[in-house]
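Incident log, structure service

09:12 report received: a user says their structure output differs between two submissions of the same chain.
09:20 pulled the input from the user's history:
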Amino acid sequence: MSAIGSRLEVAPSVTALRITLLLVGVLAGASCDRAESAPNRDPEHEPPPRVRFDRPSIARYHMRQHFQDLKTIERWLVAGRLEDAKALAYFLSVREGDAGTAAWSAETARVTSAARELAKAKTLAEALHREVRIATACADCHVESQQLPRFPELGKPPEDHSTPAARMSRHQWAVDRLWESLIANSDERWRAGLAVLASTPTPPSAAPDAPALEAALRERATQAIDEHLTDLLDERAQKYGELLVTCAACHARIEKPDRDSRRSRAHR
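09:34 re-ran on a clean worker, output below:
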């Protein structure tokens, strides 16, 4: 049985827990308790109430797993694995009520709705844009709760040694930083990822349209750099989706000649 098949047999209550915990796990420290006698207290501007769990370590585990599921979906889509990605989206589309998450029910609904739309996508381009909508729905909840996720320090991208492996590593590093920038609303990570995409050529390919795809990718990245001071989160999400669609098209062109070459050698 495939890994996807095994995961889809998980009890619905467990899978449902993931979508709830994705949104609320990061909120556990979002607000501080305030004394009832605090001066100048304005109830309308109070931060959201803290979400409490009986077993916070389990909550953190499921939240992180859900986070990784979303990233896995994106990588599978870029690699052309549409059906696998849609199957995994099941874990993002199940919603279950929880008293501790009532304050974020609207945000939860946006995430589950975006996941359901992803599961119905007919093409890779549709699915990639819908995956980005899930990420921005998560980001909206982070911003609303005033608790953004924390990632390791930015660090430096891999060195460009002009080899296919080195360039793919740089592109993957860049895409990961762009994804984190959406989730965490980070301008620094957005600019860092774009800079690498704009400056790193794609690996060589025998496909006739490979040069045009490379030019489109680098042009989109350069344009996004120029506009980074004025664009909003939704605009960045749209640009990110377009970059991913270009990445997926390029991957398909690079991998198909490789497969054809292997078949040709096998028949000699």
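09:41 both user submissions now match this output. Likely a transient worker issue. Closing.
09:42 reviewer note: The chain has two domains: 1-29+50-149, 153-268. Residues 1-39, 257-268 have pLDDT under 50 and may be disordered.
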